[in-house]
Amino acid sequence: MRHGPLLHKPYGNLPSELGGFVGRGGELAEVGRLLETSRLVTVTGAGGVGKSRLALAAARAVHGALAEGAREQAAQERYCDGVWLAELSGVRDPALLELTLVEALGLTDHTTRPPRTVLAEHLAARRLLLVLDGFEQLVDETAELVRELLLRSPGLRVLAAGRRPLAVEGERAFPLAPLEPAEALELLAARAAAADPGFAVTDANRAALLEVCARLDGLPLALELAAGRLRALTADQVLARLEDRFALLTGGARGGLPRHRALRTAIGWSHELCTAEERLLWARLSVFGGQFDLDAAEYVCAGPDLPVESVLDLIGELLAQSLLVREETAAGMRYRMLETVRIYGAGWLESLGDAGRLRRRHRDWYMGLATWCELDWFSPRQQEVAAIVEAELPNLRLALECCLDEPEEIHLGRYLAGTLWFYWAGCGRLTEGRHWLERTLEGGRGPADREYEGSRLKALWVLGYVAALQGDAVASMSALYECREGAEESGNAVAAAYSVHRLGCLALISDDMARAAQLLRSALDRYRAAGELNSNVLMCQVELAMATAFQGDLPGALALSEEVRDICEERGERWTKSYALYVLAYAALDAGATAEARRLLAECVGINHTFRDLVGLVLAVELLALVNVAEGSPAEAAVLQGAAEPLWDGVGMQLFGSGYFNAPRLMCQERAGELLGAERYAACAGHGRTLTVDELVERALREPEPPPAGPLPRPRTAPASGAGTAAGPGHQASPGNRKPAGSPKGEPAG
């Protein structure tokens, strides 16, 4: 929770405005006024009327007010924790609604707590604006969630955009009307000029353009579609085509709202103006959720009636007609279809009787993508793989749903959910991963599953892995024992190795180091016999290094960790490397080489932050705090300790109560507290708790400031002989306060 002075900069995740916001000055001001007096404001209206853009413009106005500092004191007070957007249009599964909000708020949670609990606890003492867009397909679930969050979070305000109100007590609905004629003309002209810089409103075309705006009832989406045609047609030609098709393309029941008919007119007219191949591609592209790239479009949509070599040109035509949007992302150039346009195309695909086949082709492509990403995870492309899977998550969800729709294809869902282990565990997606794994494994093992036993076993060990990382030892052990029994019965040596490995991890986090070392060595032997080498295998060796260090063999632990680091550097693997670096940093600190320990931990922090690995991040930060104490900077150590505390909420009970893994945190508190005194330590830690994760990482990576002049009292240390120093991995000060040398969970994960 944030206390103390107002934030010095705004926080949030709002996208930048690409096309410019035209008109709506009065509506924008009114929404702003409603937000001042109401905690829930919903902008309502027909598809294409501009609800999303108005809501985002209002949110950006709040965001801008935060940046104005003291001049906007009221906004600073009301929204000091930022402005956050949750895009819900691609969410179909109610179970993913709360998880989507968790992710939108930038939260990473590795515990077994329900996402709703995570949300409620995060928002309880915060003051922020949450923007919800596109909730129509889950209106009841969204209303229930919003009601609960508003009741439990007095500082929360919600700005929603949808075709109907949420009907939550206290809601202020703002029905959005179409644009006024002058604003409609301004929007039409702006979009036409963007497509054709030579376009201008003149005395010769003004009347026709105004009539186009009137025919389209001032609907922004309809106007933007028409603007795309002004590159090739005159205003009179556009108007004539609307006249010819208006009656035919209105659609809907008699007495329907004119703006509904106008929108369908505009989309239907655009459809009519497309060539046969463009219409076919439009319909087939509707199977994608969110963004997609050219390779996916070519594989899914091409066929005898749509040659693969024509897809790129056809996409270019759909872009020119404003039916597709092109976006540059961390995963490269991608395309997206506006939701209203996508729904129209999906209707045509259903009418063609080809929807089932296209959904299966879509599923097959994303199963292949997941397979290649799993292989590339153990390569220099690891960070790129994380960005690709993040961008493709809506499509991967659709692929998983497709697998679950047909009982005879559930084995494909198990394969897909298991193949994505690296994303669930390595990129902070434990809760969602467990959701899909458990869904694919529902009902147990049937006779038909024997043919696809490998997929079931993989899903089981991945479920055991994810559950262990969440601290659910019972569920983890159940899945892993079932996997091991099935692997032994079917002779699947690889699955057996994974099950033994994860059981070793459970022993590690339970402080049973002798059993952990035995199981982890057995797993490594099994991996070698099976010819398996990947991030999992190397992580097994890092975990063995931890167990070895905890048993007092620091040289053995160092040898294991150095070998892992060298292999990772040779293969370009970074995620597992970060945990090897953690062990090496411990060794450096134990030897008094604080500068080397800081260098290793800085690299560790950077990697863990890149992959959203909350466990690895909080471990590295806490060990870095101990480095600061050793270097004579106890105040900075206390700040880092305070900043790490909120992160534990997303990890769960601090490292499962493990004495080994909790030791650096407890030791730092003791040493820094002795040097600073209780009052100053509390003040420094309190400041740390105000830092965001990004600010914490920035602070952890900066060059340390020189210690204050004059000697500082040295913290007490244990004898260097035997078990090592008090900061060292081998030392055991007292039961429950043993000193660690590695990953918190034994299993580094998201």
Stretches where pLDDT is under 50 for at least 5 consecutive residues are: 1-10, 245-257, 710-750
The largest sheet, given as strand count, sense and whether it forms a barrel, is: 5 strands, parallel
Shape: globular
Reading off the top of the CATH hierarchy, the class of the domain at 25-175 is best stated as Alpha Beta
What is the CATH-assigned architecture of the domain at 25-175?
3-Layer(aba) Sandwich
- The total beta strand count reads 8
How far apart are the termini? 22 Å
Average pLDDT: 84
Order of adjacent strands in the largest pleated sheet? 2-3-4-1-5
Describe the protein's architecture and organization:
With 750 residues, the protein is mainly α. Helix 6 links the parallel strand 3 (128-133) and strand 4 (156-162). The chain is globular and about 85 Å long. Residues 1-10, 245-257 and 710-750 have low confidence and may be disordered.
SSE layout:
Elements: H1 25-37, E1 40-44, H2 51-67, H3 73-78, E2 83-87, H4 97-104, H5 115-123, E3 128-133, H6 139-152, E4 156-162, E5 172-175, H7 181-195, H8 206-215, H9 220-229, H10 235-249, H11 258-273, H12 276-285, E6 291-292, H13 294-301, H14 311-320, E7 325-329, E8 332-336, H15 339-351, H16 355-377, H17 382-391, H18 393-405, H19 410-419, H20 421-426, H21 430-441, H22 453-469, H23 473-490, H24 493-509, H25 513-530, H26 535-550, H27 554-571, H28 575-590, H29 594-610, H30 614-630, H31 634-651, H32 659-676, H33 678-689, H34 693-701
Parallel strand pairs: 1-4, 1-5, 2-3, 3-4
Antiparallel strand pairs: 6-8, 7-8
